[in-house]
Amino acid sequence: MTASVPFRANSDLLDAQYTDWKKDPGSVDTTWASFFEGFELGMAELSKRQAGGAKPDASYCETLSEKTLNFRMRVTNAILVFRSLGHIAAHVDPLSPSAPDSATLSVEGLGFSKEELNEEVQTHMFRNGQPMKLQAMLEELRRIYCGKTGYEFMHIHTPEIQNWLMERIENRPFEPAPAAELQIDALRWLLEAETFERFLHRRYVGQKRFSVEGGESLLVALETILENLPRLGAKEIIMGMAHRGRLSVLANFLRKPLESLFYEFSENYVPNMVAGDGDVKYHLGFETVRKTRSGDDIAVMLAPNPSHLEAVDPVVEGMARARQRMLGDTAQRKQVIPVLIHGDAAFAGQGIVTEVLNLSQLPGYSTGGTIHVVVNNQIGFTTLPADARSTRYCTDVAKMIDAPIIHVNGDCPLEVAHAAKMAIEFRQTFGRDVVIDIVCYRRYGHNETDEPAFTQPNMARSIAAHPSTAAIYRGTLLQNGVLDEDGANALQKELEDELEDGVKTLAEREATMGDNPYEGSMTEPQPPFSFGSPATGIEESQLKSLGEKLLQTPESFRLHPTIAKRFLAARKKAVEAGEGIDWAYAESLAFGSLLTDGLGVRLSGQDVRRGTFSQRHCVFYDTETRERHIPLNNLAEDQGRFCVYNSLLSEAAVLGFDYGYTLLAPNVLICWEAQFGDFVNGAQVIIDQFIASAESKWQRPSQITLLLPHGYEGQGPEHSSARLERFLQLSAGRNWAVCNFTTPAQYFHALRRQMKREFRKPLIVMTPKSLLRHPKCVSKLSDMGEGTSFREIIDDENLLGPAERVTRLILCTGKVYYDLMEFREQNKIKNAAIIRIEQLYPLHEDLLKELVARYPRAQKKWVWCQEEPRNMGAFNYIRNRLSEISGHRVRYAGRERSSSPAAGSKAIHVLEQEKLVEDAFSV
User: Fold this and answer.
1) What does the alpha-carbon distance between residue 408 and residue 419 come to, in Å, rounded to a whole number?
2) Is 415 in contact with 149 (CB distance < 8 Å)?
3) Which of left, alpha, beta for 139 (phi over 0: left; psi -120 to 50: alpha)?
4) What is the pLDDT of residues 798-825, one digit of tens each?
5) What pTM did the predictor assign?
6) Which of 875, 856, 862 is CA-nearest to residue 834?
7) Burial degree of 770 (CB within 10 A; 0-12, 13-18, 19+)
8) Helix then strand then coil, % of the chain, to nearest 5
9) What pLDDT digit, counting tens, does each position of 674-694 carry?
10) Short-list 74, 177, 178, 87, CA closest to 141
11) 706 in Cβ contact with 684 (< 8 Å)
12) N- to C-terminal Cα distance for the chain?
């Protein structure tokens, strides 16, 4: 019978795979490899029998092949099961006397009989085909994968990465033991943490310190990473962590002077001597330079962090990317290493962790891989894992980005050191995230004043009876002859003496008060705030030149017809006429002028390249090839770099990242734009804990600029309000600028002002939606020309009568100004003046007093008009300030109080809008 086409195709595939396997067994899929091994083994047995004179019949050959193949497949499966699931039987819990039993990994569970254990096996999938007994192979696999370290890596989709990890894991038994000095180093690192924590416990009784006791191996991991950086081409570490173990990391890893740290425990400690209002000691940051055993210097920076645990994660990533940019390390990103230290409950439970993991391989946010270290206390505050997550491990979320996960017993410091060494080597090889899960425990409660036995009596008893990691490891070194009793005691005394010396030094400093105990803190003092605006205008000829370059595309570039005919044509007409500059064009001119000044610009957010409202188009796309052209990167040879990135669908992580970027990139204007302004509420923790308060708490200035589309156009409650009131409620101490501009020129000047002032402050902008194309919301080039600058308050420039006849003063901000103007013109109202508050905070009260003095007859009739409901917007913030200036109660024109930002009905919106505008001229 003639073979069918499918049969011939399958036959050709079989032949091709077999040929490849004969040349290189590792070149084909493992299933094919095991099939060919079984086939050849069966054929070899058949040849032996034939050589002995036997004449096997067809049924014998069939039975032999099936039996051999079945056995070989079970051997292959056993290897794969250990690689995939060996971690479930690893002894990684220090509170457990033994490893957990796993029926899956038992001889029977793997499908073997006891008689088969003496069978000889030989497969290229393990030990390069070295012959061995089945029992020996299973025992070796168990030692590798079910010891004090468990590995998860078979979920990774890239064979190259799988094989790299497999080779290192399975060859580990052949590695020599660490040198004696390295083993003693590990004991030193453990004892440094343990001695420090016990010293604090005795000397500062009852004070919270969130000790690392039970997880001291964290210091072994960090020190191992540090020591391995020079040979791997790294120069810096940027770290983030919550409060658990932070003091020990500061003292023992960053080497923060002990006298400085002890001062923060003393009764004389005044936080605002350091920075603004200050913060508690276990939230503070620090930076230093560590010298490794090889003599190389490694800069180490620990970012300050509030109690919102994982909120610092994206901030650290942004800081790392900024440093990589500053060092010119933007291709391989090997010189600056982000290290994030997590708690188990937070890593599993906080959504921002997932968002940050999702950043890891994105072009605009990648930092070349992060080392995540989980200090797994097996509890979160008082909540056990069974109530805290739906996954086996707290680290399972990291599998979504193919990160290898190394689970390690925290009582085994050499295992922790091995995990850390493998992690940094992996990161430097593949530029990807890796997770070290140090399974340990928490010796005390959530803090040292808690009683853990209230809620976890069994765990508390186990921990109380459990010797410390340092004590266990010390005994191991003594037993193995690596260290004698005298050497161990001398090491302990040396560390205790260092702590006592720190207390003595503090006493001397407090007596003189002449020294600053804050050397190495991350404070960054800056000049005081002032309203004086720098000259942000530039020559009109330069503006015109920039405007023309922004319209250019390469030859043969096929731009979308709509963009060419409408978008660019309108801009060309505007720049030639010197007027009609809209919001997006003014933004491009501001960006371009900063770039030609040699500064950088970064714009990040959801769909920012095009813009939510199809207004920006700062990236052009060829309609056939999708080749990109970015005009802002083609202005001058020596210009700064413009980076624009469409972000992942996240607010918190992306805003945190861009904020972190600003901390270490003061020469880059960094803007984050929300798709709609109200989406910013997804990033509220970043705003509350960092952007609004970081300068006060940690004296960390930032020039982050938030662009938040805001305005009432009948788009419903989810697309109207950027929650202006929340930003105003957080305004104090001149911590930032909160603005709602009415002209493109004002936006132009504000962006340039961000980079031209001597001091750095965040800028919050309520950006428009309908005004993006409003025919009257345009500016002239002369409005941005030389000699012009930003105006915090704009007087009425379009009065219908003399100022002396004005009896009503309407004050407003943003889009409603145009509605008020239209109503006044239509009704020919001559006795009302409209003043625009362009910068709500800080409010320039002196300038306002100067402007309102023009209207002496209007002093008793001031109206605040806004689109937002009465309990939202700026009214509650500004009414008392206006009343103090005028000496009278300020009247209100706007929507009534509401729990929702806006009505869902377009018809209701129109009626409300008409009424509030009319009320402004009548209340």
Assistant:
1) 7
2) yes
3) alpha
4) 998 899 999 999 999 999 999 999 999 9
5) 0.91
6) 862
7) middle
8) 50, 15, 40
9) 999 999 999 999 999 999 999
10) 87
11) no
12) 99
